[in-house]
Description:
The protein has 87 residues and is an alpha+beta fold. It has one domain (4-76). The chain has helices at residues 4-19, 70-86; strands at 23-36, 44-55, 61-68.
Amino acid sequence: MGNFEETFKGLLARYLTKYHDDAIEVIDYEQDTEAGGYCETCYYEDTVVRIKYISAASGDRRQFTYYGDMGELIRCLTSFEEEDQAK
């Protein structure tokens, strides 16, 4: 297994290919937290992950933004590794 960055980018590319668009390579990503609601009862926080990648279909550089729970994204990414280990 390579270093964390290489592995994480590879898993993000697999995520994109499975759920969004065929990705040849993830170039970069950045993670942030977005808050909304602004009152005590409706306040929420979402993880935002902006993924810059090269599309397999066109060769163009594109960006996909994931909004949601970071734990859910990590579970999805680790399921790819579990699939590989089961093979």
